[in-house]
């Protein structure tokens, strides 16, 4: 049973030293009860109190790491059911399944395609996270060889899929030090697979065939055997059944602090879909509610793009707008007679404007004002993108040293600022651009002559 803030407070030193970052020990206790801070932040807690508060100090969902180095995948450690309550922390890992009975050339081609695929959106690079190697041949040596083939092409994290402990160990002898996820311990092989996870210190997936009760029993069995990093597969595959099971797991972990289900979840949408397109739809449901690792059976850029974009949207902190650094940016190779535009530092605004300017074929200067990550109209309404701020941005980044024409193009949505800006920027001509970024190209063709 989770402790209340008052119960936690009784174990604290009550010095109100503020070294934890909270104003009082009571505030720290309340934060700890909400899983919003770690017990280690209190430098004066006694060993006896730390032992008593161990359960309260643990996050409701364990953080599990798959892989090593800069390509490792961290999943779990979530604290809320809905992102607007706080934020979702560790984005869903998207992996692609490779079968060990596929021809080696086909495996190499698929791995190369997945490993090289990436896209940039609002300044962030989005890419798949790894591979799930499936022992469909039921041959340990073929399984190990497939793992070796993948490793020769990519260092992305792995999931090792087999019901045979001997096949799993053959692969683990090659890559066990890289912390692959072992999939999976079930009611038939749990003893042998749990021993492997403990021996190689690798994360372990638990798969249930008979509901969440069995899933909890198996995870508890693994935990008592000394396996700390566990991933759950409730065994459901359809749209409705997956949504129900994954929601129940998240609620039981976060709201009821039910430790046996306080782990990340893995799903296989391809096993519940009739077509690759349906697999993408089901995977999208899993990204939203509440998969931590998704294994895809099909890969193509057209399928990956919407999933990676959806993941980015859901795992962006809603309380912290994505923003770029203020400054003077160059689009193409502008000269002193090239257009000078200004907009806000909300990332989506910047990349929309920059993309349209680049597509227009007009090399340009793009000034970015510091509006704390707000869009044009929002920042104008908040008083963060007014005539004074725009003028300070022009002068602060020495725009007058880059252009000789003294013309500044402002967003059409803030055309009302034109008169004030002409007063603030003496000698400058203020031009009102289009309201929508998509119209920038046509605007420049009409009004600008290089």
**CATH topology assignment of the largest domain:** TIM Barrel
Low-confidence stretches: none
What's the CATH superfamily of the largest domain, by name? Dihydropteroate synthase-like
Architecture (CATH level 2) name of the largest domain: Alpha-Beta Barrel
Quaternary organization: single chain
Number of helices: 17
Give the integer mean of the pLDDT values: 94
Task: Supply the helix-strand structural class.
Answer: alpha/beta
CATH level-1 class of the largest domain: Alpha Beta
Helix content: 25-40%
What does the overall shape look like?
globular
Number of strands: 17
Describe the structure.
With 450 residues, the chain is of the alpha/beta class. It has three domains: 5-57, 3-methyladenine DNA Glycosylase II, Chain A, domain 3; 63-314, TIM Barrel; 327-447, 3-Layer(aba) Sandwich (Rossmann fold), CATH 3.40.50.11600. It is built from 17 helices and 17 strands. The strands form five sheets. It has an eight-stranded parallel beta sheet with strand order 10-9-8-7-6-3-12-11, with helices on one face. A three-stranded mixed beta sheet has the order 13-15-14, sandwiched between helices. Strands 1-2 form a two-stranded antiparallel ribbon. Strand 16 (407-410), helix 16 and strand 17 form a beta-alpha-beta unit. The longest helix is centred in the middle third of the chain and has 16 residues, at 239-254. The N and C termini lie far apart (71 Å).
